[in-house]
Amino acid sequence: MTQTLRNATERPALPSRARWAVLAVVLAADVLDLLDATITNIAAPTITRDLGGGASLVQWLGASYALALGVLLVPGGRLGDKYGRRRLFLTGLAGFVAASLACGLAPNPTALVVARLVQGAFGALVIPQGFGILGATWPGEEIGKAFSLFGPVMGLSAVGGPILAGFLVDADLAGLGWRPMFLINLLLGGAALLAAARLLPRDCGDPSVSVDGPGSALLAGAMLGLLGGLIDGSASGWSPRPLALLLLGLALFAAFCHRQRTAAEPLIRPTLLHNRGFTSGLILGVLAFAAVAGLLYVVSLHLQRGLGRSPAGTALALIPLSAGIVVASIACYRLIHTHGRRLVVAGLLLILAGCGCLALLPDSSGWALVPPLLLTGLGMGTCFGTVYDVTIGDIAPDEAGSASGSLNAVQQLANAIGAAAVTTVYFKAVDDGETHALLASLTVVAATVTLCLPLVRLLPRKAQAEQHH
Asked: Which of helix, strand or coil describes residue 374?
């Protein structure tokens, strides 16, 4: 972020109307990414009834998108620096729209999962370019206005996206079932692509920028092996094949770690890992994001499979959770510098309280679900609105950009791991009933969140003022 602000002061800004138009394009791309990251939480049971694939497809639907996005997020940013942000933004958005079409037309589970991987990969080319583009078009003294809109817009998208997906699935437009949920990206993404081609400023990039392709490939292989082994083992039994995939994933991850120590431009700077606060925040973030990503999937599955709600009804039932995230995130924006890591503790405790209330009301529906889901959402917004700002609280200014990019990438990878791991517990326990499966999943989530609490003491006490903009 510091680099972004510096760029804003070095380049002439566009006229006011053009700046706001560029901001609208960048926001539209981020909204598309958020929508497609969350819609399968609602639609997974409907998709599996149509295509088959069972539990393994449910697990791959969310994990595949987050996996590709997380692995390629940092390289995507560096490719923009190297070849030009406008070029990568347009390429990524065009690929994202094409992959959405492939998702909507997928004839079988394998085709859908591959299309989701491609969709996440192209999303990773788009998202990192946004802040750089804004830094090149907005003057430094006004760029805060642009960034201040991201929270509310993303919050509204977090609430509205699942609702839109649920109603599109229930509407069964032209007998297409769940497919319009992806096909609508042809309209939304196509409009954003046309606007981006017309409005985004041209830039040349810097050919000297280095991109660690081998490191990215090793990380992708490691994550595919680990997730593939976990999902295959939980769905088909622990035969030699899933065990071999897990061992392959571990071997590739070890090779990735070695690569990070020897590469000229590693994905995560080694000096960052020597910082106790950053490393603790990285581990805490992996655990916390993985836990709640799995929780969101399991709650949606329980509402539909256990309580018989429709996709639209499930989306409406989850509004208190989304509303809690939005409210807490906005509130914590102003509290982070006075309360620092205490907000992280408060967020984790609220998530635990929400899980406890859900465990006491496993078969309840309607208004009885509002308090536990609201508590959980408030906890998520409180914790996740602050944990990474606190994590980089004592990072050197010249490493802040690398640290933020690494943390965002790790968040996506944690989402992939959590979606696979917690749903594995759910489907393993579902033979004893939907209620038992929910309680088993809540136990794993609560245990994982509890492990985060001791790590908070290792974080910096507060965020840096200049980082939080």
From this structure: helix
